[in-house]
Amino acid sequence: MLRCSGRAFYPSTAWPLCTLGETIGATETRIETLLSLLWTPAQLAVLAKVVDLNGFSAAARALGVPKAAVSRAVADLEKSLGVKVLERTTRRISLTHAGRLLYPHAKRVVDEADAARAVIGKLNAPISGPLRVVADPTYGRVLLTPLVPRFLESFPDVPLEVAMDAPESAEGWDVAIRTRSSAAGQFAMRLLGAPPALLCATPAYLQQRGVPARPEDLRTHDLLTPEATDAQQFRLRLERGSQRAEVLLSPKLAVNDPAVLHAATAAGLGIGLLPQFMCRSGLATARLKPVLPEWIVPPAAALYALYPAALEADLRVQRFVDFLAANIVPALGVTGE
Fold it and tell me: Order of strands across the sheet with 131-135?
């Protein structure tokens, strides 16, 4: 506490004026009120994202923040309001009665923020019409096929033009889904995720050549891998709990197209290092068998959304990239909540 020994000092609106001998009152309440005004809209927006995307992890991916930050925002909102707004279980979330009353207001915060960005976006990118999307053929057909209808249902006002086989040099696109992060300065990018990978082969190949029991056994097999990053050998790193293994391999086939690797593996030409989602059908029907299943191999090439920097404020681009970030990771095989 401070006392005035004479006439008023610091004549500012930040400090109340006092007379001789008067004690300046505490300002914690004013600070708490100010912080509440600053943070409550953000907490409401986070709540709306959690409800709209049906999960804390999906909301965190869409917002580009850690899941813990999303959980903390909702918890702080509940604490400041003095009510519980969400019921949480291991499988789903649902709004409480108070949450149902609050949600329309939270949704309006998000809508107003989107509207503000849209107004500014029109200044930088006055583009209308369909959002033109190009994608890597292999990943595009498998991952975008189920997501495109869902996006159109969620955002019926954003028509799409999708090309699954456009070359990387293609022009005139708004968003590109690529496995390479390199982009010129006029492009912005966002990491969407990296597909889990595994080693697998056909039963016929394993019956003829034997089943590897240890990572070192891979050296005696025909390996089908992505292109090597150093020299002519492929450096395969594996993990099993606290154990680490590194094996230098000379692949029988090294190619940057996972569709070619999958075809060669399915033809019984060797042990393939493949994105997990491409092997689901083969594993389910026993046409493929996992190799060294207790060992974890590095994920496949990461997926990125690239878009011209001039379209960074375009509401269509924001909605599509946010949707991809929230939904592609589960499709890649990573557990969600």
Answer: 160-163, 131-135, 175-178, 303-308, 187-193
Residue 222 has pLDDT above 80, yes or no: yes
Mean pLDDT, to the nearest integer, of 120-140? 73
Residue 292's contacts (CB-CB under 8 Å, 6 or more residues apart) are 199, 212, 214, 215, 218, 238
User: If phi over 0 gives left and psi between -120 and 50 gives alpha, with beta otherwise, what is residue 305?
Assistant: beta
Nearest of 61, 44, 62 to residue 112 by alpha carbon: 44
Q: Residue 307 forms beta bridges with which residues?
A: 188
For 28-47, give one letter per residue: b (16+ CB within 10 A) or e.
eeeeeeeeeeeebbebbbbb
**Measured between alpha carbons, how far is 83 from 108 in angstroms, rounded to an integer?**
20
CA atoms within 13 A on the CB side of 273: 28
Work out the average pLDDT over 1-12.
42
Q: Enter the tokens of residue 131.
A: 């959002």
319: left (phi over 0), alpha (psi -120 to 50) or beta: alpha
Q: Is the pLDDT of residue 126 over 60?
A: no
Task: Name the pLDDT band for 229 (thresholds 50, 70, 90).
Answer: low
